[in-house]
Amino acid sequence: MKLLVTGGAGFIGSCFVRTALTEGWAKRVVNFDKLTYAGNLENVAPVAEHPGYRFIQADICDAEAVEKALREEVPDAIVHFAAESHVDRSIHSPAPVIQTNFNGTFTLLEAARRLKIARFVHVSTDEVYGSIEPPHDADESYPLRASSPYSASKAGSDLLALSYYTTYKVSVSVTRASNNYGPYQFPEKLIPLMISNALEDKPLPVYGDGQQVRDWLFVEDHCQAIKAVLEKGRAGEVYNVGGNCSLPNLEVVERILKATGKPASLIQQVTDRPGHDRRYALTNAKLTAETGWAPQVDFTHGLQATVDWYTWNKAWVERIKSGEYLRFYELNYSHRVG
How many other C-beta atoms are found inside a 10 Å radius of the C-beta of residue 264? Predict the structure, then answer.
Protein backbone atom coordinates (compact mmCIF):
# COMPACT_ATOMS: atom_id res chain seq x y z
CA MET A 1 0.00 0.00 0.00
CA LYS A 2 1.21 3.52 -0.86
CA LEU A 3 0.09 6.30 1.48
CA LEU A 4 0.24 10.07 1.48
CA VAL A 5 0.07 11.17 5.12
CA THR A 6 -0.59 14.83 5.90
CA GLY A 7 0.81 16.13 9.18
CA GLY A 8 3.13 13.14 9.40
CA ALA A 9 5.67 15.07 11.49
CA GLY A 10 3.13 15.79 14.22
CA PHE A 11 2.44 13.68 17.27
CA ILE A 12 -0.19 11.23 16.00
CA GLY A 13 0.82 11.45 12.35
CA SER A 14 4.44 10.59 13.07
CA CYS A 15 3.38 7.57 15.13
CA PHE A 16 1.28 6.42 12.19
CA VAL A 17 4.19 6.91 9.75
CA ARG A 18 6.58 4.98 12.00
CA THR A 19 4.04 2.20 12.54
CA ALA A 20 3.14 1.81 8.87
CA LEU A 21 6.77 1.46 7.79
CA THR A 22 8.18 -0.56 10.68
CA GLU A 23 5.28 -3.04 10.64
CA GLY A 24 5.62 -3.29 6.87
CA TRP A 25 1.98 -2.97 5.83
CA ALA A 26 2.80 0.19 3.83
CA LYS A 27 5.55 -0.09 1.24
CA ARG A 28 5.62 3.66 0.59
CA VAL A 29 4.75 6.56 2.92
CA VAL A 30 4.94 10.17 1.77
CA ASN A 31 4.95 12.56 4.71
CA PHE A 32 3.39 15.88 3.61
CA ASP A 33 3.88 18.42 6.39
CA LYS A 34 4.30 22.19 6.59
CA LEU A 35 6.38 21.92 9.79
CA THR A 36 4.54 24.45 11.88
CA TYR A 37 5.27 24.76 15.62
CA ALA A 38 4.14 21.20 16.48
CA GLY A 39 5.66 19.47 13.44
CA ASN A 40 9.01 17.90 14.21
CA LEU A 41 11.05 15.72 11.86
CA GLU A 42 12.81 14.28 14.87
CA ASN A 43 9.56 12.40 15.46
CA VAL A 44 10.13 10.35 12.30
CA ALA A 45 13.91 9.96 12.72
CA PRO A 46 13.56 6.18 13.25
CA VAL A 47 12.29 5.78 9.67
CA ALA A 48 13.99 8.76 7.99
CA GLU A 49 16.35 6.47 6.06
CA HIS A 50 13.74 3.86 5.21
CA PRO A 51 13.71 3.29 1.41
CA GLY A 52 9.94 3.66 1.34
CA TYR A 53 9.86 7.03 3.11
CA ARG A 54 9.70 10.48 1.52
CA PHE A 55 9.22 13.87 3.17
CA ILE A 56 7.65 16.85 1.41
CA GLN A 57 7.59 20.16 3.24
CA ALA A 58 4.47 21.92 2.01
CA ASP A 59 1.16 23.41 3.12
CA ILE A 60 -2.09 21.45 2.63
CA CYS A 61 -3.70 24.76 1.63
CA ASP A 62 -1.31 24.96 -1.35
CA ALA A 63 -3.36 23.32 -4.12
CA GLU A 64 -0.45 23.22 -6.54
CA ALA A 65 1.85 21.47 -4.06
CA VAL A 66 -0.85 18.98 -3.09
CA GLU A 67 -1.64 18.07 -6.69
CA LYS A 68 2.04 17.81 -7.60
CA ALA A 69 2.67 15.36 -4.76
CA LEU A 70 -0.35 13.24 -5.65
CA ARG A 71 0.55 13.11 -9.35
CA GLU A 72 4.14 12.13 -8.56
CA GLU A 73 3.28 9.49 -5.99
CA VAL A 74 -0.18 8.21 -7.04
CA PRO A 75 -0.96 6.92 -3.54
CA ASP A 76 -3.58 4.29 -2.81
CA ALA A 77 -4.88 6.45 0.03
CA ILE A 78 -4.61 9.81 1.76
CA VAL A 79 -4.57 9.73 5.56
CA HIS A 80 -5.27 13.28 6.69
CA PHE A 81 -3.91 14.24 10.13
CA ALA A 82 -2.69 17.79 9.44
CA ALA A 83 -4.46 20.30 11.69
CA GLU A 84 -4.05 23.18 14.07
CA SER A 85 -5.12 21.18 17.10
CA HIS A 86 -4.70 23.21 20.27
CA VAL A 87 -7.89 24.64 21.76
CA ASP A 88 -6.20 27.50 23.63
CA ARG A 89 -4.40 28.62 20.47
CA SER A 90 -7.70 28.53 18.57
CA ILE A 91 -9.35 30.73 21.20
CA HIS A 92 -6.60 33.33 21.10
CA SER A 93 -6.08 33.22 17.32
CA PRO A 94 -8.85 31.45 15.40
CA ALA A 95 -7.87 32.42 11.84
CA PRO A 96 -5.05 29.83 11.35
CA VAL A 97 -7.35 27.09 12.68
CA ILE A 98 -10.05 27.84 10.11
CA GLN A 99 -7.52 28.19 7.31
CA THR A 100 -5.73 24.90 7.97
CA ASN A 101 -8.49 22.70 9.32
CA PHE A 102 -11.28 23.67 6.94
CA ASN A 103 -9.68 25.21 3.86
CA GLY A 104 -6.79 22.76 3.93
CA THR A 105 -9.20 19.82 4.06
CA PHE A 106 -11.11 21.32 1.13
CA THR A 107 -7.88 21.53 -0.90
CA LEU A 108 -7.08 17.88 -0.23
CA LEU A 109 -10.60 16.70 -1.02
CA GLU A 110 -10.64 18.59 -4.30
CA ALA A 111 -7.33 17.05 -5.34
CA ALA A 112 -8.53 13.58 -4.31
CA ARG A 113 -11.70 14.06 -6.36
CA ARG A 114 -9.90 15.28 -9.50
CA LEU A 115 -7.22 12.60 -9.37
CA LYS A 116 -9.57 9.81 -8.29
CA ILE A 117 -7.63 8.77 -5.17
CA ALA A 118 -9.03 5.41 -4.10
CA ARG A 119 -9.27 6.04 -0.32
CA PHE A 120 -9.36 9.06 2.00
CA VAL A 121 -9.35 8.83 5.81
CA HIS A 122 -10.09 12.11 7.55
CA VAL A 123 -8.81 12.11 11.14
CA SER A 124 -10.97 14.18 13.48
CA THR A 125 -11.77 14.52 17.19
CA ASP A 126 -14.41 13.73 19.80
CA GLU A 127 -14.47 17.46 20.61
CA VAL A 128 -16.95 17.98 17.76
CA TYR A 129 -19.64 16.45 20.04
CA GLY A 130 -19.07 19.10 22.71
CA SER A 131 -19.66 18.51 26.39
CA ILE A 132 -21.69 15.36 27.13
CA GLU A 133 -23.69 14.95 30.30
CA PRO A 134 -23.29 11.65 32.19
CA PRO A 135 -24.23 8.87 31.87
CA HIS A 136 -24.47 9.32 28.09
CA ASP A 137 -21.70 8.41 25.63
CA ALA A 138 -21.65 9.77 22.09
CA ASP A 139 -22.08 7.40 19.18
CA GLU A 140 -21.48 8.48 15.60
CA SER A 141 -25.03 9.86 15.24
CA TYR A 142 -24.73 12.14 18.29
CA PRO A 143 -25.38 15.84 17.50
CA LEU A 144 -22.34 18.03 16.76
CA ARG A 145 -22.06 20.77 19.39
CA ALA A 146 -18.64 22.30 18.90
CA SER A 147 -17.75 24.90 21.51
CA SER A 148 -14.37 26.30 20.39
CA PRO A 149 -13.01 27.56 17.06
CA TYR A 150 -10.87 24.40 16.95
CA SER A 151 -13.74 21.94 17.41
CA ALA A 152 -15.98 23.97 15.07
CA SER A 153 -13.32 23.86 12.36
CA LYS A 154 -13.05 20.09 12.76
CA ALA A 155 -16.82 19.60 12.73
CA GLY A 156 -17.02 21.65 9.55
CA SER A 157 -14.24 19.70 7.88
CA ASP A 158 -15.90 16.40 8.91
CA LEU A 159 -19.13 17.43 7.20
CA LEU A 160 -17.25 18.68 4.16
CA ALA A 161 -15.39 15.37 3.86
CA LEU A 162 -18.62 13.38 4.14
CA SER A 163 -20.25 15.61 1.53
CA TYR A 164 -17.54 14.63 -0.95
CA TYR A 165 -18.64 11.03 -0.56
CA THR A 166 -22.32 11.86 -0.99
CA THR A 167 -21.85 14.27 -3.90
CA TYR A 168 -18.74 13.03 -5.70
CA LYS A 169 -18.37 9.46 -4.40
CA VAL A 170 -14.88 10.15 -3.03
CA SER A 171 -14.22 7.15 -0.78
CA VAL A 172 -14.02 9.10 2.50
CA SER A 173 -14.21 7.76 6.05
CA VAL A 174 -14.04 10.01 9.12
CA THR A 175 -12.53 8.99 12.47
CA ARG A 176 -13.19 10.85 15.72
CA ALA A 177 -10.71 10.03 18.46
CA SER A 178 -10.61 10.89 22.13
CA ASN A 179 -7.62 12.51 23.87
CA ASN A 180 -4.36 10.93 22.72
CA TYR A 181 -1.22 10.60 24.81
CA GLY A 182 2.17 8.95 24.44
CA PRO A 183 5.78 9.62 23.37
CA TYR A 184 6.68 12.55 21.09
CA GLN A 185 3.65 14.69 22.01
CA PHE A 186 4.27 18.45 21.82
CA PRO A 187 4.59 19.67 25.43
CA GLU A 188 1.62 22.02 25.49
CA LYS A 189 -1.07 19.32 25.81
CA LEU A 190 -2.09 18.19 29.29
CA ILE A 191 -0.08 15.00 29.82
CA PRO A 192 3.28 16.00 28.27
CA LEU A 193 3.09 19.47 29.84
CA MET A 194 2.45 18.04 33.28
CA ILE A 195 5.18 15.41 32.92
CA SER A 196 7.81 17.88 31.71
CA ASN A 197 6.89 20.42 34.42
CA ALA A 198 6.95 17.74 37.12
CA LEU A 199 10.38 16.53 36.01
CA GLU A 200 11.64 20.12 36.31
CA ASP A 201 9.85 20.75 39.66
CA LYS A 202 7.73 23.48 38.05
CA PRO A 203 4.08 24.22 38.91
CA LEU A 204 1.46 22.03 37.22
CA PRO A 205 -1.36 24.41 36.11
CA VAL A 206 -4.82 22.83 36.35
CA TYR A 207 -7.84 24.62 34.88
CA GLY A 208 -10.61 25.41 37.38
CA ASP A 209 -11.48 22.55 39.72
CA GLY A 210 -9.79 19.96 37.48
CA GLN A 211 -12.92 17.84 37.25
CA GLN A 212 -13.18 18.05 33.46
CA VAL A 213 -13.47 14.43 32.27
CA ARG A 214 -11.58 13.14 29.24
CA ASP A 215 -11.28 9.70 27.66
CA TRP A 216 -7.61 8.75 27.22
CA LEU A 217 -6.30 6.81 24.22
CA PHE A 218 -2.71 5.64 23.81
CA VAL A 219 -1.41 6.95 20.49
CA GLU A 220 -0.32 3.55 19.17
CA ASP A 221 -3.84 2.21 19.73
CA HIS A 222 -5.18 5.15 17.74
CA CYS A 223 -2.85 4.39 14.83
CA GLN A 224 -4.01 0.78 14.77
CA ALA A 225 -7.61 2.01 14.68
CA ILE A 226 -6.88 4.20 11.66
CA LYS A 227 -5.25 1.24 9.93
CA ALA A 228 -8.39 -0.78 10.64
CA VAL A 229 -10.60 1.94 9.14
CA LEU A 230 -8.29 2.29 6.16
CA GLU A 231 -8.50 -1.44 5.45
CA LYS A 232 -12.02 -2.37 6.61
CA GLY A 233 -14.00 0.83 7.16
CA ARG A 234 -16.88 1.76 4.88
CA ALA A 235 -16.83 4.87 2.72
CA GLY A 236 -19.17 7.64 3.84
CA GLU A 237 -19.09 6.48 7.47
CA VAL A 238 -17.87 7.99 10.76
CA TYR A 239 -16.01 5.86 13.32
CA ASN A 240 -15.40 6.85 16.95
CA VAL A 241 -12.05 5.83 18.46
CA GLY A 242 -11.82 5.88 22.25
CA GLY A 243 -9.58 4.41 24.90
CA ASN A 244 -12.34 3.25 27.29
CA CYS A 245 -10.64 5.27 30.05
CA SER A 246 -12.55 8.30 31.36
CA LEU A 247 -10.77 10.27 34.07
CA PRO A 248 -10.96 13.79 35.55
CA ASN A 249 -7.98 15.95 34.60
CA LEU A 250 -7.02 16.39 38.24
CA GLU A 251 -6.74 12.62 38.71
CA VAL A 252 -4.52 12.38 35.62
CA VAL A 253 -2.25 15.07 37.06
CA GLU A 254 -2.13 13.29 40.43
CA ARG A 255 -1.16 10.04 38.70
CA ILE A 256 1.63 11.85 36.86
CA LEU A 257 2.97 13.21 40.14
CA LYS A 258 2.92 9.73 41.62
CA ALA A 259 4.70 8.27 38.57
CA THR A 260 7.39 10.95 38.71
CA GLY A 261 7.74 10.88 42.50
CA LYS A 262 6.84 14.55 42.86
CA PRO A 263 4.70 16.21 45.56
CA ALA A 264 1.07 17.30 45.18
CA SER A 265 2.15 20.78 46.23
CA LEU A 266 3.25 21.36 42.62
CA ILE A 267 -0.42 21.49 41.51
CA GLN A 268 -1.51 25.06 40.79
CA GLN A 269 -5.17 25.76 40.06
CA VAL A 270 -5.63 28.49 37.43
CA THR A 271 -8.61 30.31 35.91
CA ASP A 272 -10.67 27.99 33.76
CA ARG A 273 -10.57 28.16 29.96
CA PRO A 274 -13.47 30.07 28.29
CA GLY A 275 -16.17 27.63 27.15
CA HIS A 276 -14.30 24.67 28.63
CA ASP A 277 -16.20 21.45 27.88
CA ARG A 278 -16.92 19.52 31.06
CA ARG A 279 -17.00 15.94 29.78
CA TYR A 280 -16.09 14.06 26.62
CA ALA A 281 -17.27 10.48 26.28
CA LEU A 282 -17.82 8.22 23.29
CA THR A 283 -18.42 4.61 22.37
CA ASN A 284 -16.27 2.43 20.09
CA ALA A 285 -19.04 -0.11 19.46
CA LYS A 286 -19.36 0.56 15.72
CA LEU A 287 -15.61 0.43 15.02
CA THR A 288 -15.19 -2.77 17.04
CA ALA A 289 -18.18 -4.45 15.38
CA GLU A 290 -17.05 -3.63 11.85
CA THR A 291 -13.27 -4.04 12.10
CA GLY A 292 -12.52 -5.97 15.30
CA TRP A 293 -10.36 -3.13 16.66
CA ALA A 294 -10.19 -2.50 20.42
CA PRO A 295 -7.69 -0.53 22.53
CA GLN A 296 -4.86 -2.72 23.83
CA VAL A 297 -2.91 -0.40 26.16
CA ASP A 298 -4.46 0.34 29.56
CA PHE A 299 -3.92 3.79 31.02
CA THR A 300 -1.66 2.70 33.88
CA HIS A 301 0.87 1.06 31.58
CA GLY A 302 0.50 3.69 28.85
CA LEU A 303 1.06 6.56 31.27
CA GLN A 304 4.13 4.91 32.80
CA ALA A 305 5.59 4.30 29.32
CA THR A 306 4.97 7.96 28.49
CA VAL A 307 6.55 9.21 31.72
CA ASP A 308 9.56 6.96 31.07
CA TRP A 309 9.92 8.30 27.52
CA TYR A 310 9.90 11.95 28.64
CA THR A 311 12.31 11.12 31.45
CA TRP A 312 14.75 9.54 28.99
CA ASN A 313 14.28 12.21 26.33
CA LYS A 314 14.66 15.48 28.20
CA ALA A 315 16.92 16.81 25.43
CA TRP A 316 14.04 16.42 22.95
CA VAL A 317 11.77 18.48 25.21
CA GLU A 318 14.43 21.16 25.64
CA ARG A 319 14.93 21.43 21.87
CA ILE A 320 11.18 21.82 21.40
CA LYS A 321 10.89 24.49 24.07
CA SER A 322 13.91 26.45 22.86
CA GLY A 323 13.19 26.24 19.15
CA GLU A 324 16.52 24.50 18.61
CA TYR A 325 14.76 21.63 16.89
CA LEU A 326 14.55 23.77 13.73
CA ARG A 327 18.34 23.84 13.51
CA PHE A 328 18.40 20.15 14.41
CA TYR A 329 16.25 19.45 11.32
CA GLU A 330 18.59 21.34 9.04
CA LEU A 331 21.69 19.59 10.32
CA ASN A 332 20.29 16.06 10.36
CA TYR A 333 17.38 15.67 7.97
CA SER A 334 17.43 18.39 5.31
CA HIS A 335 18.72 15.85 2.78
CA ARG A 336 15.47 13.90 3.15
CA VAL A 337 13.31 16.82 2.01
CA GLY A 338 11.97 16.50 -1.54
Answer: 10
Give the whole-angstrom CA distance, residue 168 versus residue 162: 10
**Domain, as residue range, for 174:** 2-336
Q: How far apart are CA 94 and CA 274, in angstroms?
A: 14
Any idea what the CATH number is for the domain that residue 148 is in?
3.40.50.720
Residues marked active site are found at 126-127, 150
Q: DSSP 3-state assignment of 271?
A: coil
d(C-alpha 259, C-alpha 199), whole Å: 10
Tally of domains within the chain: 1
d(CA 135, CA 219): 26
Which residues are bridge partners to 105 per DSSP? none
pLDDT, tens digit (0-9, with 9 covering 90-100), for 316-336:
988 887 765 444 444 444 333
Alpha helices in 103-218, H assignment, sequence order: 104-115, 149-168, 190-199
Q: DSSP E strands: which ranges in the chain?
A: 2-6, 28-33, 53-57, 77-80, 119-125, 172-177, 179-181, 204-207, 213-218, 238-241, 246-248, 267-270
Give per-residue pLDDT as tens, 134-178: 999 999 999 999 999 999 999 999 999 999 999 999 999 999 999
Distance CA 218, CA 93 (A): 29
* Cα–Cα dist 290/236, whole Å: 14
Q: How far is 292 from 336, CA to CA, in rounded Å?
A: 36
- ∠ CA 163-80-94, nearest 5°, is 80
Question: Residue 247, CB half-sphere, CA atoms under 13 Å: how many?
Answer: 20
3-state SS class at 165: helix
Of the chain, the end-to-end C-alpha distance in Å amounts to 20
pTM higher than the cut 0.85: yes
